[in-house]
Amino acid sequence: MKALKNQGRTGGRHEQEAQGSRKRCAIITFGCQMNEYDSTTMASLLAGEYDLTEDPADAHLIIVNTCSIREKAEHKLYSLVGRFRRLKERRPGLRIAVCGCVAQQEKERLFQRMPHIDMVFGPQGLYRLPQMLARLEAGQERVMAAELDEGFSIPAVPRSPLGLEPARAYVTIMQGCDNFCTYCIVPYVRGREVSRPAGDILDEIGQLVDMGIKDVTLLGQNVNSYGRKGGAGTDFAGLLSMIDRQYPGIRLRFTTSHPRDLSVEVMECFERLDTLCEHLHLPVQAGSDRVLKRMNRHYSRREYLEKVELLRKIRPDIVLTTDLIVGFPGEEEEDFRQTLTLLDRVRFAQAFAFKYSPRPGTAAARFEDQLPEDVKGRRLSALLAMQEAIGLECYRALEGTVQELLVERVHPHQEGMVQARTRGNHVVNLQGGPELVGRIVHAEIYQACNHSLKGRLCAEYPDGNHSGIGDDPLARGSSNEDHTDVCTCDNT
Ligand code: SAH
Ligand code: SF4
Ligand code: F3S
């Protein structure tokens, strides 16, 4: 769970002039990067009237952007929004919105369960936020926008600096998913796959670059199928090339890649495009063909391993990370063992592992051979122990190397320290102050920890800055955001 922060940025001159009359909005986000992106889109839509606050008790409007990928994530929402009832009793003018994937799933039922909510809207509905608020102001008691439109296209929302981190940002390139993996709720709550036109994406990256953003992650549930349905103007490899040509100074990343659709053209981009960072998140989910088939993943263990091998041939230093589900219905000890042997073989730098959680309406929730919680728990612990050792080994291999880092934030807990990221996506803690935030520096890695590295700035790169970034006023902001180092968990 994250509260969107002001990060020392404001909504712009117009908003600063009207500061006295501005209202405050708390945006709390659960779930994946898509939701984080959607929350910043909402901040942009509200920037004319609202500032952000991290304290719901101080807000005129509270927006909870929800996730329903696993049951635990859903439960967290109910306990949080339940607590806002008291706030509403004290301040009847307070508006409370629940949006995102649980809102899309539950619709009307949310109003019944929590009558103090004013607005319910899904991932497609959020673009109508200003109009929905206007309807509440005009006296309408409740507003809902939770229909899924087959012909939906993603509107272009001019990006406000409000809520952005100092150095890196997400850009959604597509919405929805057509894959229907049998465990997954996403196609039901995010609708059919739709790609944004390449021109809109390039414009948005341009706006971010003008604000001082140096690291851009393209988002989609399955970015490799970008443009497949037409209307986007290019395919995914083409989009990467266009961005690389137009914005040669940035670091470019993307997530998520479906292994089935990862083409040789996209793999070759890791070699061909300087902007594209040498990190790929390639969720494998399971190591056994029997389980992969029941998951409806459309690739085999062998095909996955062949793609990994080819990737490493094309880009030997590529850093691979993955997602895994343990305790899928009918997963036997032998299937699980194959997941462990796959981990051993590929040696991912990080693996995000989850206990299978049955989701309403999905095919796997109806499978009869569900596994007991204790089996899932035992397998998760075994996997975690194995991955800890592999991850540490990958991190140790970087000891003694010099890495190019983008400094992202002041360290949330350690005074006099900042947090930075390698091109390979490792988090590095190093000594320094807020003046480094937003800058590209070089550091020698002197110690590997479980999920991060320790580094010291290199003297031979005096200002540590080969792109003139230090002059950018917006790059000076800092953030206290809690860095998620933990990579293996059973909830979101
Ligand atoms: N589009 C991405 C994944 C999105 S969901 C992809 O195709 O890989 C993020 C991760 O949550 C998934 O990779 C999967 O590992 C996990 N996940 C999804 N549904 C789940 C469920 N029902 N139970 C447990 N984990 C789940
Ligand atoms: Fe879910 Fe599969 Fe789509 Fe990923 S590809 S969002 S796991 S249905
Ligand atoms: Fe993301 Fe959770 Fe929705 S993982 S797409 S916010 S269900």
Which architecture of the largest domain per CATH? Alpha-Beta Horseshoe
How large is the share of residues in beta strands?
A: 15-25%
Count of beta strands: 20
Global shape: globular
Give the helix tally.
Answer: 14
Spans where pLDDT lies below 50 across 5 or more residues = 10-18, 462-492
CATH class value of the largest domain:
Alpha Beta
Describe the biggest sheet?
7 strands, mixed
Structure at a glance:
The strands form five sheets. Strands 1, 2, 3, 4, 5, 6 and 7 form a seven-stranded mixed beta sheet that branches. The protein has a five-stranded mixed beta barrel with strand order 16-17-18-20-19. Strands 8-11-12 form a three-stranded parallel beta sheet, with helices on both faces. It has helices at 13-17, 33-46, 71-90, 101-106, 108-113, 129-137, 186-190, 198-210, 236-246, 264-272, 289-294, 301-314, 333-346, 373-396, and strands spanning 2-3, 23-29, 50-52, 61-66, 95-100, 119-121, 143-145, 168-172, 174-175, 194-195, 215-219, 251-255, 279-281, 319-326, 350-355, 402-410, 417-422, 427-431, 440-448, 453-457.
Task: Please tell me about this protein's structure.
The chain is of the alpha/beta class. The chain is globular and about 60 Å long. It has three domains: 2-145, 3-Layer(aba) Sandwich (Rossmann fold); 168-390, tm_1862 like domain (pyruvate-formate lyase- activating enzyme); 402-476, OB fold (Dihydrolipoamide Acetyltransferase, E2P) (Beta Barrel), CATH 2.40.50. It starts with a strand and ends in a 35-residue tail after the last strand. Strands 1, 2, 3, 4, 5, 6 and 7 form a seven-stranded mixed sheet that branches. A five-stranded mixed barrel has the order 16-17-18-20-19. The protein has a three-stranded parallel sheet with strand order 8-11-12, with helices on both faces. Helix 13 runs parallel beside helix 14. It has 14 helices and 20 strands. The chain is 32% helix and 20% strand. A hairpin with a 6-residue loop joins strand 16 (402-410) and strand 17. It has helices at residues 13-17, 33-46, 71-90, 101-106, 108-113, 129-137, 186-190, 198-210, 236-246, 264-272, 289-294, 301-314, 333-346, 373-396, and strands at 2-3, 23-29, 50-52, 61-66, 95-100, 119-121, 143-145, 168-172, 174-175, 194-195, 215-219, 251-255, 279-281, 319-326, 350-355, 402-410, 417-422, 427-431, 440-448, 453-457. The structure holds S-adenosyl-L-homocysteine, iron/sulfur cluster and FE3-S4 cluster (F3S). FE3-S4 cluster (F3S) binds at residues 31-32, 34-35, 67-69, 100-101, 185-186, 189-190.
